[in-house]
């Protein structure tokens, strides 16, 4: 009885070639038989080697031939047949049928197992999955699945190493999720889409006012999805051009870009844009015209004798709101439109005295 050690079969896409790499093992004392067998196997090996020259195949290696020398198919394991090198030789080697390959069991015996054709196919050995789904697959619970750190690409029917959005990649198939591709070595979404929070899926861009169902769909900074529409968050306000969300100002003199930021919390305020001596332009919330700041609020400015509501309305010195009007405070009197603590008569004494003297002299002469 003669047996031949393993010969290997390499498969890549639709191309299949058989490579011989065997040597005989002596099982008979016959010298002539040994020489005949050596010549036949060597000739077969050279034939197969020459037929493969010119092709470079880089792919997974699978064993197709078993360790059995045969004369008929009945002498081979299940799902195997007797493969002969040519018609002139009586003996051949048992080879697995198309779609099957040889695996070694725990008892060191070989049998032919069917190669998986799709994800989820039944399996007993990892090689059954590797044959079609790539080495990034495995036989898990008797089912072909992508191994941890890999994902299934439907259009390729294969498993690929997983790269998340924003990570380095070599192939577009490495990028997980639909509408993704590898650009300049980085996994990105196609135009008009953006990554979700887990960076494993691309979401359609939704701008302010667009329909949405989740916050992560809204692409404008500081926006959220409320009532199926992208709006600004509660801490921000929509700008005048309705394309940005600006932070709401809480106190007077805080930084701002537009007046709407100030008016939200501070009535009668405005955003005043100024350019400093260093050339930097910045805005701060200040009170609008005819208003002034009092207690970090903007109140209307009222002069002496004007109508008022509270003391803060009265802007002139030493004035207060008395009975609905700005008046001079206690012990102060109004003099020429201002409040003063010194009494000033409303008429001139010297001209009056001169008039009395003149009248008196006229009376004496008469």
From TrEMBL:
- Taxonomically, the superkingdom here is Eukaryota
Residue ranges of domain EB in the record = 110-151, 152-198, 200-240, 287-339
Pfam families in the record, alphabetically?
EB (PF01683)
Q: Tell me the InterPro entries matching this sequence.
A: EB_dom
Q: Which PANTHER family is this protein grouped with?
A: EB DOMAIN-CONTAINING PROTEIN, ECDYSONE-INDUCIBLE GENE E1, ISOFORM A
What is the name of this protein?
Answer: EB domain-containing protein
Q: What organism does the UniProt record list as the source?
A: Anopheles atroparvus
